[in-house]
Structure formats: structure tokens, C-alpha cells
Amino acid sequence: MDVKKTSHSVYNLNYHIVLVIKYRQNILIGEVEEFVKEQINSICQRYNWEVLALEVMPDHIHVFLSAEPKYAPLTIGTTLKSILAVEVFRRFSDLKARRFWVSGLFTDGTYYGSAGSVSTEIIKKYIEEQKDK
Asked: Which residues, 6 or more positions from 114, have their beta carbon under 8 angstroms from its beta carbon?
């Protein structure tokens, strides 16, 4: 997890995002699981987000990725959820008809965690020591 650069920023922003299937239905298995992995990698490539780790569980998805500062974590999660839902329902229309006919694919809630290359304690100490320099 290296420091990255754009024309106007230097950053190391890494987010752990958990997307949960509505009603905790165990649908992310087999062909659906593989399709979701491909789609997440494709979406992240399109937006220039680097996938650091990805695990698809039967009822939820863990994505650990790095993104430029112009992308808020909420924007990343919403983008992933909306595009994934459209693509999954397009490819597996029976899921929409049988299990999600009155709702979307994901719950409204999403977990967001952030991580850089140093711990919270190191950052706190660095900030506290600034006046002493």
C-alpha cells in the first residue's frame, strides 16, 4: 500500500467496505459469486480504484480498496452497490423475479472503515508533537 500521486495530491486512502445482501439471502455462491468478483474488479478499474483485497461471502461482500481523495467513501459504496445490482439482475433475472421482486439487491446500510499505512495512535502522537517542533 504505497503512497499514490495525482496532479494535485499525494495520498494513501484505503477503505474497507462491506456490502450486505438484502434479507441476508445466501445468493453469492457459484456462478453469481464469480460474476460479482468480475464486476467489482471491472467497476474499480473503470473508476481507477485499486482493489487491495476482495472476498465474496454467501450473504455479503468485503472490498478493501484504495481510491483518490476526490471519491468519498459513500460515493464508492453507492457506486458499487448500484452498478452491481443492475448487472446482477441483468445477468441473473431469476433472482429479481424470485427473491428481490419488491426491493433492491443490497441493504440500505453499508460498513465503511478506513486504513492507511500507519495506526491511529501514531497519527495522534504525530499531531500532538507538532507544537513541540
From this structure: 13, 14, 15, 16, 73
DSSP 82: H
Q: What is the pTM assigned to this prediction?
A: 0.87
pLDDT tens-digit series, residues 72-104:
999 999 999 999 999 999 999 999 888 887 789
Residue located via cell numbers 448500484: 82
CA dist 19 and 17 (Å) reads 7
Question: Mind listing the domains of the chain with CATH numbers?
Answer: 4-132 (3.30.70.1290)
Per-residue pLDDT tens for 37-61?
Answer: 999 999 999 999 999 999 999 999 9
Q: Please count the CA atoms within 13 angstroms of the CA of 86 that sit on its side-chain side.
A: 6
Sheet holding 14-21, edge to edge: 50-56, 60-66, 14-21, 106-115
